[in-house]
């Protein structure tokens, strides 16, 4: 799932493409919906964006937000979604229900008549059978339920506010880091990476952590996310996934050697997700059995 650093990388990339420093902003030529499940709103017709100029490209948590004229195109890439840019999209029209492409957005130079052609633009794609990719056309980003529920951005949390969140959370620390209503922008991968770098068990109870552990976790969260954002900055959209994979130390590294201590990275599986951790670095050398029966909470 794309998380804060990758979405910020997409924001930076799209800004360069759509709002260039040496020219006028791009204008939407047309939108094609190939998967009707991707569009989550009906109040504003999707074609209302045609002919409007791109005003800004921003991020809210893990949401990508394009202001286009007085409207907003908001996208959430979910678990298996991605944005694929082309400087010259095919003239062929999308066939509904065929292939990985769910939504195509074409752009034209300002002053030209909007319409199909070999315009630049992007496709939203989604692999797999679970269709969670979402696009919204709204008058305000706050109309999107997921954005309305967002807590503060992880990088905007100061230590005092973060400590307050941790101390009142009765569940496991990994769950708090992933809870978008509490801390926006972190998902499964970066929560694994942050906890590994902070040497904390993913099953540690948040409200049992002492102030030193919380301070270390806060500093680690900021450092790791900023490092990942810096690594993503300036890269083409097509390279962002590989940049993320290469930097991961424990997430999706089950069975490999921990780069810090050499122990074997282990995994805990759930019904529809999993987590990875290093026993030596995080749980005193003892493996976690599962989320219900493990006794190793520190």
Automatic annotation (TrEMBL):
<keyword id="KW-0326">Glycosidase</keyword>
<keyword id="KW-0227">DNA damage</keyword>
<dbReference type="InterPro" id="IPR010979">
    <property type="entry name" value="Ribosomal_uS13-like_H2TH"/>
</dbReference>
<keyword id="KW-0456">Lyase</keyword>
<comment type="similarity">
    <text>Belongs to the FPG family.</text>
</comment>
<dbReference type="Pfam" id="PF06827">
    <property type="entry name" value="zf-FPG_IleRS"/>
</dbReference>
<dbReference type="Pfam" id="PF06831">
    <property type="entry name" value="H2TH"/>
</dbReference>
<keyword id="KW-0479">Metal-binding</keyword>
<dbReference type="InterPro" id="IPR015886">
    <property type="entry name" value="H2TH_FPG"/>
</dbReference>
<protein>
    <submittedName>
        <fullName>DNA-formamidopyrimidine glycosylase family protein</fullName>
    </submittedName>
</protein>
<dbReference type="InterPro" id="IPR012319">
    <property type="entry name" value="FPG_cat"/>
</dbReference>
<feature type="domain" description="Formamidopyrimidine-DNA glycosylase catalytic">
    <location>
        <begin position="2"/>
        <end position="109"/>
    </location>
</feature>
<keyword id="KW-0863">Zinc-finger</keyword>
<keyword id="KW-0862">Zinc</keyword>
<dbReference type="InterPro" id="IPR035937">
    <property type="entry name" value="FPG_N"/>
</dbReference>
<keyword id="KW-0234">DNA repair</keyword>
<keyword id="KW-0378">Hydrolase</keyword>
<keyword id="KW-0511">Multifunctional enzyme</keyword>
<keyword id="KW-0238">DNA-binding</keyword>
<dbReference type="InterPro" id="IPR010663">
    <property type="entry name" value="Znf_FPG/IleRS"/>
</dbReference>
<feature type="domain" description="FPG-type">
    <location>
        <begin position="249"/>
        <end position="283"/>
    </location>
</feature>
<dbReference type="InterPro" id="IPR000214">
    <property type="entry name" value="Znf_DNA_glyclase/AP_lyase"/>
</dbReference>
<dbReference type="Pfam" id="PF01149">
    <property type="entry name" value="Fapy_DNA_glyco"/>
</dbReference>
